[in-house]
Amino acid sequence: MAHFVIMGCGRVGATLAHTLEDSGHSVAIIDQNERAFNRLRASFCGQTVTGVGFDRDTLREADIVNAYAFAAVSSGDNSNILATRVARETFHVPHVVARIYDPGRAEIYQRLGIPTVAAVRWSADQVLRRILPEQSINGDFRESSGRLILGELSLHEGWVGSTLSDIETSAGVRVAYLTRFGEGVLPGHGTSYQQGDVVHAMMRVAATDDVTRVLSQAPAKESE
Asked: Which segments of the chain does DSSP mark as H helices, in order?
């Protein structure tokens, strides 16, 4: 079980809160308008916090210091990005995602290392993929035999600068393409993993747990 903090209790935030709670996780959801919490089902057992989602005291009340992930899905782009940066840079939350309405800002946010989901192609599933690594591996494409799957990888920040070849060798996967600055990129010889990249790879379904375990840790340093 992990702890998740969500900013924004609209239809999106409520869906995320219910899905995460159904998966056995603890959830705190923040909104400026207390009436927004009426969107939550009566049986919701998570924490509701009334306040501004980028305020540090509000985030502390939501137990951000123990959060595995933070999702900013309010109706304001600027608020979502600011809150996400505070969660990542002040509280060092390992997994963050911001919902945006202006796709033109995506490259700027990606350069800041903030995964974003544009509202024009938004779904709760896309947000979950970025804050739940096990969900990202379960979902993009399966070939006809059911033995291979294409999914997004969640990598420890220690892999930044490593070549994709090293990642393939360590995790036993084959990288298909990258999403970099919001655009798909076919990797070439010597392509390295950069902060903000989303790595899409083919792997054996039976090995997904091992892939997650290997990539959730920093790569082992070579002995001198």
From this structure: 11-22, 56-61, 77-85, 106-111, 124-131, 133-137, 164-171, 208-215
Q: Choose the most confident range, by mean pLDDT, from 30-39, 172-181, 196-205.
A: 30-39
Q: Exposure of 177 by Cβ count < 10 A (0-12 exposed, 13-18 middle, 19+ buried)?
A: middle
Task: Tell me 90's DSSP state.
Answer: I
| CA neighbor of 171 nearest in space, from 182, 186, 156, 181 | 156
Residues 6-30 have a mean pLDDT of: 93
Buried b (16+ CB within 10 A) or exposed e, 96-110: bbbbbeeeebbeebb
Tokens of 65: 């210091």
How confident is the prediction for the chain on average, in pLDDT?
84
